[in-house]
Amino acid sequence: xxxxxxxxxxxxxxxxxxxxxxxxxxxxxxxxxxxxxxxxxxxxxxxxxxxxxxxxxxxxxxxxxxxxxxxxxxxxxxxxxxxxxxxxxxxxxxxxxxxxxxxxxxxxxxxxxxxxxxxxxxxxxxxxxxxxxxxxxxxxxxxxxxxxxxxxxxxxxxxxxxxxxxxxxxxxxxxxxxxxxxxxxxxxxxxxxxxxxxxxxxxxxxxxxxxxxxxxxxxxxxxxxxxxxxxx
Length: 232
What we know:
Elements: H1 8-15, E1 23-26, H2 32-39, E2 46-50, H3 53-65, E3 72-76, E4 90-96, H4 98-106, E5 117-122, H5 126-135, E6 138-148, E7 151-160, H6 170-173, H7 176-179, H8 184-201, H9 209-230
Parallel strand pairs: 1-2, 1-4, 2-3, 4-5
Antiparallel strand pairs: 5-7, 6-7
Helix pairs in contact: 4-5, 8-9
C-alpha cells in the first residue's frame, strides 16, 4: 500500500523532528503523523493522544491498517495529562487554535524545562500564542510560514528558555525567525499581519501614544514586505 502524502503543515512539523526523536503527538485524530514518521523511518516509536473517543478509535484503526500498531502507544487524555516528562523528547500540537495550544502548555508547565522541544501549528491566534510563549519561559527556535491549500499558516519550533526577541512588539506578530524567511508564503503572512495592524489602528486616536507606536511598527512591517519582495 502506497504511503499517503502529508499536507504542508504536517510535513513541516515532521521536518522539524530529528530522526530518532521520541515523539508525542497531541490531538492525533487519524494518527497520520505517527504513521508517516514510522513508515518513513524517522521514528522508531510514537505516543499519540486525543481527548475524544472517535479520534482515538480512528487512530487505532489506522495504525493497525498500516501495520504500526505495536509501535504507537495511544492515549485518551487532554493535552499532556497522560504523559510523563520522560516519555518524549519532542511534542507536536498541530491543527488547534493558538489559545487552545497555550492552555495545553499552561496545564503542563514542565514542558518549558528546556529538555523538550515542541512543534506547534496554530490554526488561529498565532500572535497570542507567541505572546504566551514569550511570557512563560519559552523561546522560538524556528518558525516557518507555509501555504496549505489556499491559506497560509505558520509552524513553530520552541523550547524552554528566555527568548531574546520577546520584548519587541514586532516579534509577537512575526517572530524573529519568521522575519528572515523570504518566499511567497512569508510574503503572504507579512501582508496579513500588516493588514491586521492597520485594522487595529482604525480604532485608535491618531494623537495617542498607541497610534504613534503602531505607526512605527507598521513602518517596520512594510520594510519586511519590501525586503521579501526583493529577496533580501
